[in-house]
Here is the input.
Amino acid sequence: MKIKEVDKKLVLKDGETGTIDIELPKEEITPKEKASPAKEEAKVMPSKEADKPAADKELKAEEKDETPIKEPVHRRKGNPEKTVVPGDKLSEIEDMSSKKKTKSADQKKKVHIPDEPEITHKHQPTNELYFDVIMIVSILLYLFSQTEGFEIFGRECTAGTVPYGVFMIISMISLCGPSLVFMKAGAKLLVHNETKRYIWKNRILRMAVLLLIFTIFYYISDLMGGRDDWDIWTFIGDLYCKERIVPLAYMYSFIGFLICLPFLRPMAQNMKNRDFIYLIIIGVILQTVMPEIDDKICEGRYIMNPAFNLNWLLTNSIFYPLVGYYLHHRVRREQIKKILPFAWLLTVLDMSMIIYNTYYHTTYIESVAIYMDYLYWVGILASISLFMTIKLIHTGHPHNETAKKVLASIAGCTLGVYLVFPAVLDRIKIFDDLEYMIFGNMTGPAKILPSLLWILIVYLISFIPVWLFRRIPFVKKTM
Here is the structure.
């Protein structure tokens, strides 16, 4: 309501008092403006100037991360120091105190660095059927490399002929057996995020116990056969610095791979595809190109400075596990179809160069009947080509469940066969008589047939006891 202004001025001197009558005009109130006294009181709102201090207080409280607390509603009788706060305000106070406690606790915590890297690539299953096929193929290839069939190209074939090259290629492929095992191990073990305690307790210790048991077994066998003398310190020295039999050398390499798992795993999981390709290219250069330069161009007069030594990169415990991880988890089946012809072309070209080098060296030095130093140059390309070939054949289509169980049972005995077959190969001499009875005095390239039969016999004799021992639960976890 407005007060009607009066055009009169009231002048009061000091100490004087006076009154003035002011006429207030009557204003008409429309029906819409009519309201009950209660509603009029509800409409009365505090002025902006009155609310400003409260708003400033709330703003400062928000900056301090605190909730403003209004004056208590009333005080308890008999104890004026304690205040009673309404329920909603009490919950706000409790929430505020809990937030302060959580904040202080978080500040006291140390910065946590995760043990495992962030994996950005999707991993493939590690129980693929072709893994079992790789294990079976690898042990058969290794058995061939330990028999007389490995040397047929030099003993039974004329140098420079087609059989000479064909059987040399077979010998070169047989050297890929151990490499395939390490590639499969990398594809399977570099995915699991296992603790160092688990690796040492369940993997390294297991392999070390097997190595010790079979070293003792072969040492006792040599004592009984009169091939060695009893000396405990000689045995301990041999166990530390050299293998009792040649096949056990790969057990030492595999233990080295298991020790490297804690840093090989994050390395593999965080490497990009182009990094793996770079690794393979460097490996091929070091294994094939550099030796060829030293042998043919420098002719042994100049060799690479020994300080430039990257041979550690080509060890079984580093190179092949990383390549196996890459081929299984990063290279799809559709990509293998495109890559595989090119990979085999490079492998054949490398083999052709090795055949020429071996033929040249054998004819140049007449006293050398079998020269095998060049045969190891093709290991990387041949192993990669074999791995991709097996993966391409045994993936992309369903498999019979019975066949899967049979292959898994046979592949599970591979480690046991690997440890047992030297005893069968070196200490059972009955095959010489059996070979003469079946094949007679066979010579020439056909000599490969007795070697293949001998491989089958050795594998079966080694497989049967291992398969029976694996029926025991404790042995099954060990072998």
Remarks:
- The chain has 20 helices and two strands.
- Confidence is low (pLDDT under 50) at residues 1-17, 31-52, 61-89, 108-120.
- The longest strand covers residues 74-75.
